[in-house]
Every structure is written in structure tokens, then in C-alpha cells.
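_Per-residue structure_
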Amino acid sequence: MVEHPTIGPKTRGDLATTLLVAVGVAFGFAFLAYLCVEVPRAYGHVTPIWLSNGFLAACLLSSPSRRWPALMVGAAVGALVAGAHAGDSPLVDVILVSLNLAEALLAAYAVRRVTGESIDLGKPRDMLAFVLLGGFLAPMIVGTMASSLLTLLRGGDLLGNVVGWVLNDILGMLTIGPCLLVLFKAGLYLRERPVTRDGMLSILICGLMTTVVFAQTKYPLLFLVPPVMLLAAWRQEVLGAAIGAVLVAAIALVLTIAGRGPIHLILAGTGTQSTVLQLFLAVSTFVSLPVAAFQRQRRAILVNLVEAGAAAERSEARYRLLAESALDIIAHSTLTGQMTYISPAAFSIMGYEPEDLLGTGYLATLHPDDRPAIRRVVEIQRNWPRGVAAPPAETVEYRAFRKDGGMIWLESRPTLACDPVTDEPTGITDIIRDITARKTLEMQLRAARADAEAAAAVKGEFLANMSHELRTPLTAVIGFANLLTDEPNLSARGQRYVDRIATGGRTLLATINDILDFSRLEQGRIELSSRPVAITDLVAEVLDMLAPDAAAKDLVLRAVGDDGAPPVLYLDPERVRQILLNLIGNAVKFTEVGEVRLETDYDPKIGRLRMSVTDTGPGVAQQDQALIFTRFAQIDAALTREHGGTGLGLAISRGLVELMDGEIGVESTLGEGARFWFEIPALAGPTHAADDDQDGEDDIPLPPPGRRVLVVDDNAGNRELVRSVLEAVGVEVAEAVDGEEGVAAAAASVYDAILMDLRMPRLDGVAAAQRIRAEQGPSAGAPIIAFSADVRSGPLDPVFDGATPKPLTVVSLLGTLAAALSAPKPATA
């Protein structure tokens, strides 16, 4: 149910207040009308003042506009009753009542048009509006009409009637109107200007002086009354002026009607005497009320000035306290560069008293090499075009010298200061901060970075050396294990032992490759080599390599979607193969039951290849998913962990994917398996390119038999392995144990090709190859093939004609040697 707000009680309360005010207006209007008519008539005088219209106008101005109709009705009732009691005929009574009400309404309406809903006689504007519009304009218009109609009905002197009537209404308006308006807001005026002893004394003097002047009939001392009225207005402001005006009017009227006062010195008759009295009271009131309003405004201005001055002093003290307490130097200079203010922080930062740096003293402390930079920033501020938005402040760092000679680093931000009134530039304001600690830290960080880079270089060099040292024996281990496998008389036990040796060698080689690949990724030394690849062949090759491991655990290993991809995609097959081997290898390693599925999807619109590996293994916890792509991270990293590995496979995969501008991620729920995916850009290409490439891979060329090859290597096992492979295909092999012997052998005999290790004692492979070329011996033109683990680390020196990496593979050695021997570069005789 919706409850509507109840407005009945509020409306009824407002209606009751309106009726009560209307009744009060009716009694007030009738009483004042009776007072102004019957009292003078009892003493044989005409009415000298008409208060009812001023009373009604004041009530209207003090009430909301919505109450005006009720107040006008109440005033009409009171006026009709008073007119009937005075003996006026009904016609005359209705005419006079209508005109009196119209005068009060016109006065209130005209004044409200200027002052708004609220009138404050303490404001000069409101006071002048009431005096001119309500006190003079409305009585002159309506009073002229009323007196003209009355003269037409009753006869008499038109001019005398008009002047007397208008002055009666003016005097009534200016006497009772301001008094009531002030009394209605007496609380406001008393809060602003409480009644003081001087104020009360001025009002008493005003009443006493008026009594003295109007109690005698011998001297025309009317001129003594206005000064004391001004005194009351001056001392007690609006309230004093209103009370003084009422007091003067009451005393003057009572004593004049009683036959006293200087008015009776006028012998032109009672009509003239009444007119003079009215003019005197009107002028006196007109003078004192505006003076009171201006005095109130003057006092308010003085109070505001005092408060503004105090606020300015407090603000100045507050900002001075801030400036003096600030840890940074606050400075101000003229547009010509003369320092006019420097805060006390100059002593703690630079060792100088602020007075020592005023003028041009501060400039002398700056480092000569940094002055142009400071001058440039300041000149930008000084020369900024006028009338344009303030220039952006620019921060500048520079060196300065302390008083004790020590050098410090400072930071400034010069800003153009402008006059808040005219907006004209007045100087440059600056906040100067000591940044010596920060600059010292920056230098330390740069030094630490240089040290870290040097350490990284040393680490790279160490890894390169370790690669060589580890791959050299691995070459022999894996190579001879492969040769032993082909021995026909090897026993079953020996075959098993050889397989274990080969497996261990490959495992160790994979570990070394992971560490080296990650190191090269960190150093940005891996370069991509995109070429056309048949993605179905690449997937089949990876699955064939991992099929034995999956079969050993009875896992299903299958591929989905690769046949839906374009026949040929341009990508780096070695790097994609490495990523897939890491992802699928991990899946097989951690999955005990179920399957491992490789899904392939290609989006031709954006040219991106997406591959995902899904397993039915234990899954990856949510908190571990953010860690598995970081280096050396292993979820089962405890000492009793079930699975081995370096923890670099996924980190390397992420690095390779990001190097190819791709993305990699994992989706998994613990206990429900995992799905590792990566997405890389791969443009589709023509079909025949991949076919040609594949045909080239299947057809491995052999070096022609009868050729002579010089093997330069400091490791005897590697030399023996190469000899075993090459002699098996009919190639004659000669050996040298280091670079020096290799140079000598090449200078002494003719060789069709030279296999050169890169890291050897006495003379390394690059230097040896360069000497062979430079000495123009019989083998100077022979192809020189780099034979080292380092060929994987970066670009090859131009002195070499090819490269085959360690550990040695038969395919790589034979293919590289055959390619070098088939090139149009015959050995020199």
C-alpha cells in the first residue's frame, strides 16, 4: 500500500494564521483610522496624519504574497466600520475605503518589485525603495485622486485639499510604515546592533529636544529637532531612526493639537499650520531613515574590512608558517631574475641564510654547466605570450654548491606568478627540492645495473663454456652409443646397456639444451626462421617421437584437427616442435591413465594457429597455474617428487610463444586433467613449397667418397667419432689436436674440407680459420665447417662455410659436409 503524505494539518495551520493576521489588520486599520480622525476633531483640528494606509502597507510587505487577499479583506472591513463610525455616507465611505486600500496595495506592490519577498530597511536600496515608492509615489498618485473626488463630492479648495491629503498620507506612510517594518525584524537588528547606552541616550535626547521645541510657543525652533533625530539614527541605526521618527511625530502632534509648539506662530490659519507640521515631519523622517540605513551599511563594510584584514593576516601568517616550516626551499624572483624571497629551508639545505641569497646571490651557487638549462626553463615562463593560458611548468634538475663547498643536486619547477586582479605577470615562483639522496640512489642503481649486466654477460660466457665442456663428452657418449647399437655381435645385455647410455645421454643433452635455450631467451639471442611447413607432418613427427613414452604407460596419444588446417603454414618448425615436445612431454609424464590429445585449429580470417594439449592427468591447482610458466617452477618440487626435470620447459615455451607474438595459457581443474594451449600468427602458403622442403629432408646427400677431410678438435673422442662416421662412407680423415696444429696441417697438405672446433687451447677455431684463409696455403680455399656446441648460440662468423652442432648426429654431419663439398669452391692445389 502506498502512503501519501498528509498536508491537511499544515494547510489548516496556515489558514488559521492567515485568518488571525487578517483580523488583526482589521482591528489595527480601524483603530488607527479612529485615532487619526476623532482625536484631532475633538480639539477642533483637521486630521494632520493618516496612519492606516502605512499600517496596511507595512503588514503587506511583512507577509507572503499568498496572504495579501485575506489582509486586504480584513483591512476593508476595518475601514468600512471606521468610516461608518465617522459619519460618512455609504458612497463616500466605499470610495474612501477603496482608495485607501488601493494606496496601501500600490505602495506594497511597488516596493516588493524592487526588494523581493523580503524587505530590510537596514539596506539602503530597500530603505530608498520604501521612502520613494511607498512613502511618496503611492500617496501622491492615490492621494491626489482621493482628494479630488472628495472635493468634487463635498466642495472646497482643490489645491488645499490635495496638498493636505497627500501630506497626511505621506506622513503616515513614513511614520508608522518604517516603524512597523523595523519592529517586525527587531530581533535581527538587535542582534546586529544591540541597544547601547549611547543609543538609548540619543533616543531620550531626541524625545526631550522635541518636547522642548513643541512645548513652547515663543520661538520657531523646529530646526533643532532633525539633528537629534540624525543622532539617534547614527547611534542606534535603523531601530533608533524608526523609534525617533515615531517619538517625534507623536510628541509634535499631541502638543500641536493641544495648542502648543512653534507651529502656532504661523498666523495663516489651521490649514497652513497643519501643512507645515506635515512637511516638517515628512522631511525629518525622510532624512533620518536613509541615514540610518547608510550607517548600518557603513558599519557592515567596516566589520567586513576588519574581518577581511584579520583573515588576510591569518592567511599570511598561515602561509608564512607553511613556507618557514617547509622542508623544500620556496623562492620568488622578479621577472628580471632578482631573488626577492627565499624561505628559511635554504639554511638546512644549502647552509646559507636566506638573506645571503637574495638579489643575485642564489645564482652564484649554481654549477656553471647547469645554468643554461635553468635559464631556458625560466625564460619560457617569462616570455610566454600574454592573454594565453599559463605555460606548463617544467621540472629541471641541476647541481649547486653548499656554503661549505659540497655539491648537491636540486630540483626546481619554476612557475609564472601573476597578479590575481590584473593577471599581469609579477615574477617567478619556485619550489626547490634537495634530491641528492635520490640522485645518489639513481647512480647506485645504474652501477648495480651495469654490474648485473656484467654478471649476465659472465653468466652467458659461463653457460657457453659449460655448454662446450658438457657437449664435447656428450658427443662421444651419444655418438659411440649409436655406433655400438649397429654392432651385429652385441649381446642382449650389452644392447640394453648401450640403450641406457644413449637414453641417459639424450636426457642430459635435453637438460643442457633447456638451460641454454632459456639463457638465450633472456638475452634475446634466439632468432626465428620462418619457412613453409606442412602442419600435419610436424604433428605426426612430434607424436612419433613421444609415442614410445606414451606406449610404455598404455596412454592413448592422438591428434585432432590438424588435417583441417591449410596444407602449408609459414612458421618456425623447430621452435613449434620444441613447444609441442614440452607440452606433450609434460602431459605424458604426468598422466598415468587415459589419453593425451593434441588439437589443432586455424583461423583464416586473422591468420592464427591455435594448438592445445589436453590430458586426463591430475590437473593443476588454481594457485599453481600462475607459477608453472615461470623458470625452474615445479609443482612437485619436494625431495620425494615423483617426476624429474629442470622446470624450464614451460618457461621456454612461453618465451618462444611470446617471441613469435603469440599467447600461451592453461585451463585446468584439480583432479580433472589440464589443457595447455598456445596461439601464434601463421600465414598460409602454397602447397608445393612444403612438399619440396619435405622431399629435401627425406633425401639426405652423402659426401663423395675419396675426399680428404681435416678434423681439428682438442677432444680425442670427438675426433675418433667423426673418423668412424666419415670413413664408413669412404671419406679419408686427418686429425689435429688444436688450432695451431690445424693451421700447420692445412698449410702442409691439400684437404677438401676442414671441420673446426671453436673452443680449443692455444688458438681458438675462429682465429685458426682466419689464419688458414690469410696464409694462402694449399687448403686456404677449402670449405671450413664450424664443429661446436656454440653454433646454436648465435650467428656464425663469415669465415666459415657451414656448421654442424655438438653433440654430433650422423645426419647433420653428413648433410653439412656434402653441402659444403658440392659448393663451387674447389680446394687449392
User: Anything to note?
Assistant: The first strand starts at residue 329 and ends at 333. Residues 699-822 form a domain with the Rossmann fold fold (CATH 3.40.50.2300). Residues 1-8, 635-642, 688-698 have pLDDT under 50 and may be disordered.
